[in-house]
Amino acid sequence: MISQTAAHDAVSTFTPAAQAWFAVRVRSNHERISAVHLGERGYEEFTPSYKIERRWSDRKKEMEQLLFPGYVFCRLDPQDRLPVLTAPGVVGLVGCGRIPTPIPDLEIERIRTMVQSGLLVTPWPFLELGQTVLIEHGPLAGVEGILEEVKGKCRLIVSINLLRRSVCAEVDRYWVRPVKAPHRTAILSH
Fold first, then answer.
1. 20 to 30 A Cα–Cα from 146, which one of 19, 114, 161, 172?
2. Do 1 and 90 belong together in one domain?
3. 6 and 92 fall within a common domain
């Protein structure tokens, strides 16, 4: 049996560069609790949220909602996942069968940049088709995503492919530059 000190030392000896991001599935309304416990156990966690205005008949209130309800993103070594799986509220890691699937760092960084930009960011239905663009100006400069038009406004959509979920942010049409699709070569049969 491993002592608590040995387990804690094992968690803290991993170098962040050797760890990948994973989606941790959590019980309903346990995202923040799980995130706190993961942070206390020495893991880098990310639980992105956005602000929304709720209206009642007698008042309005600004509330914080999660962009990915039911999930907390965590950087971990998949070979030593027991401390993550035993955190309060954690159900499991997202993956194929019993093998957790890592999320590319670039996808997490795109979401983080959007959340920190100060722009209106909201959940968005996952899209597979659409024009891929690169934001060249403004607070999202350097972020690549899909450009869509909604109610006459341009929106940049960024996805976490593993979860099949997306978020969008309103952007200025003049900030974007199309990204060329990779050139596909035809395979000729003889």
1. 19
2. yes
3. yes
Cα distances (Å, whole numbers) of residue 162 to 3, 5, 108, 151: 34, 34, 11, 28
The percentage of the chain sitting over the pLDDT mark of 70, rounded to a whole number, equals 82
Confirm whether 82 is domain-assigned. yes
Segments forming the whole domain that contains residue 54: 1-103
pLDDT band, very low/low/confident/very high, at 10 (cuts 50, 70, 90): very low
CA distance 45 to 58: 37
- Strand blocks (E) in the chain: 20-26, 44-46, 49-55, 60-66, 71-76, 90-93, 95-96, 99-100, 121-124, 131-135, 144-150, 153-160, 165-171, 176-178
Which residues pair with residue 103 across a beta bridge? 21
Instruction: List, in order, residues 6 or more apart from 116 with CB less than 8 Å away.
Output: none
Residues 96, 22 share a domain: yes
Is residue 188 in a domain?
no
Tokens of 143: 């972020």
Q: Using an 8 Å Cβ cutoff, are 157 and 130 in contact? A: yes
